[in-house]
Design brief:
Layout lengths: L1 E9 L13 E8 L7 E10 L4 H5 L9 E2 L4 E8 L13 E4 L9 H4 L20 E5 L3 E3 L6 H4 L2 H14 L6 E5 L3 H12 L3 E6 L3 H9 L4 E3 L6 H8 L5 E6 L4 H6 L4 E9 L13 H7 L3 E4 L7 H7 L11 E4 L3 H10 L5 E4 L8
Parallel strand pairs: 9-10, 9-12, 10-11, 12-13, 13-14, 15-16
Antiparallel strand pairs: 1-2, 1-4, 3-5, 3-7, 3-16, 5-6, 6-8
Bound molecules: zinc ion (2 copies).
Length: about 350
Amino acid sequence: MSVRTVAVTRIGSLKATDEAARGRIEVIDLPEPDLGPEDVRVRVAYSAICGSDPHLAEGFFGTDVPIGLGHELSGVVEALGPGLRRTDLAVGDRVSGNFLRFCGSCRPCQQGRQQFCEHIQEYNRPGMSETITWHESQLYKLPHSVSLLHGCLLEPVSVAVRIADKTRVRVGDRVAICGGGPIGQLALQVMARYGATSLTMIEPIAERRELARRCGAEHTIDPVTEDQEGRAREITDGRGFDVVIDASGSPRATRGLLDLAAQGGTVVYGAMYPTGHELPLDLSRYLYLRELTLTGLFVSPYAFPRAVQLLPHLHLDEFTRAVFPLEQAAEAFEVHLSGRYPKVVLRCNEFEELV
Ligand SMILES: [Zn+2]
Ligand SMILES: [Zn+2]
């Protein structure tokens, strides 16, 4: 059996103006993995394009094509392996999940650091596909009030939860977020529920600043036309933000964020950065005198159960307005790159929505 799947079929930047050098996204037939004893086959409903997908097209994680894409998805359980241990899963259940399976046996897994699992890639399968076959440990059932369309956002929500974890925020802390893409917007909503104050979105695109306002931002800063540091001082009575989150991944933005942080504050670099990008760091100024904590994250283990709980409470409609059929994946990626919508979603199979 083979399944229609979105894949990178030529490595290169999707934005390259020279057609011969441009990366290529196509829908191709890939073999459907066997259903192992503890596996679950899911008929995919929706699969969202992630900001990291174009980096995969550039060969960030490897250059052997085809590279199947898609790790933000929802669907309906179609078949259960014969040795399933979970008793709460049945054919017809609406689910989402973690694209990574953690083995549970390697040293990092044993130490509670599943993000460094030595077998993390074994079940990382493309989700922009008619079906996906996952290990039972990767699946999460969607709450009754959450549609399949919203359910495909579980993985990005889990990233926002992990970002919140890494901030070690306390109720009432002043929080700024740089970058109004989907992760930044979701992190903003999560931080708002966490009791953040002076909640500020730093973002050059006006539509994204407005979206942040609608989703709970008290202030916005345009880093291009405004004096970012001056505005931050104004908003925080000259003290700076207790928590600063970068969700932009923009090398230009990374440096200035240290100057927005309050004494003893935390700066989370919560995006994917170009390999080799270096951040000059005045140790005396930022770590000695101001005791800043700088941190980052790779993936989001342990965050999924809480992300499932949050799904019904988040404003997600604006992230699911642009929906394309699977076969139009190439057009969908063009629209994604245009930045016209906060998020672009592929419909992989038609299901009747019950909510
Ligand atoms: Zn993603
Ligand atoms: Zn492991």
